[in-house]
Write a structure and sequence with these properties.
- It is a single chain.
- The protein is of the alpha/beta class.
- The protein has 2 domains: 86 residues, HAD superfamily/HAD-like (Rossmann fold, 3-Layer(aba) Sandwich); 81 residues, DNA polymerase, domain 1, CATH 1.10.150.
- The protein has 6 helices and 5 strands.
- Helix 1 packs across helix 2 and helix 2 packs across helix 3.
- The radius of gyration is 18 Å and the shape is elongated.
């Protein structure tokens, strides 16, 4: 019997506004490069699944550039575009900066689905590779637990056997508390 359901954040419950493909196209246009947002969607998804550490929101000054260049290599091949390394990194840097101020928008079916699942008596959790506060997005009354992949000792997409002891302990403590 299912008692608990965990959701991912981006692309499952919510999306940023502007969305990633729109933001990257906008930044590229500012640099004189025309990229269609539609052209980018599949490439972004492919790049994020193959090189998640290279996604622009993870950019920090002084960080190793290699994962970002690999991320762009996947995106470029999928979207059929080529750009110099310097341009890839500048788009990454600017998109990262602008992504920090993006607002989160719930999908139309998110709240009705959460309401139904709570009515069924399920415990609902959110696990994400970014820190997502519950406040201000309308999920406060539905989510019982919010954790990041870092808190459970794994990278997004990691095999369940890679989840660290501390993360398993945190989740186990939560579930033990539910049963008492």
């Amino acid at each position: 019997m299912i008692k608990v359901v965990f959701f991912d954040w981006i692309g499952t419950l919510a999306h940023p506004d502007p969305d990633r493909h729109e933001l990257i196209a906008q930044v590229a246009t500012e640099l004189g490069i025309r990229l269609s947002p539609q052209q980018l969607i599949k490439g972004i998804h492919m790049a994020e699944s193959l090189v998640p550490t290279g996604a622009p929101p993870r950019w920090r000054e002084g960080k190793d550039e290699a994962p970002f260049i690999r991320w762009w290599g996947v995106l470029s091949a999928e979207a059929g575009v080529q750009m110099p390394r310097k341009v890839m990194l500048e788009i990454t840097k600017r998109a990262s900066s602008q992504a920090k101020s993006a607002r989160w928008v719930l999908y139309d079916d998110t709240l009705p689905a959460m309401k139904t699942l709570k009515e069924w008596g399920l415990v609902l959790g959110l696990i994400s590779n970014i820190i997502v506060g519950k406040a201000g997005v309308g999920l406060e009354s539905y989510l019982d637990l919010v954790v990041t992949f870092k808190e459970v000792g794994a990278d997004k997409g990691a095999d369940q056997n890679d989840i660290g002891h501390d993360g398993v302990s945190q989740l186990a403590s939560f579930f033990r508390g539910m049963n008492n």
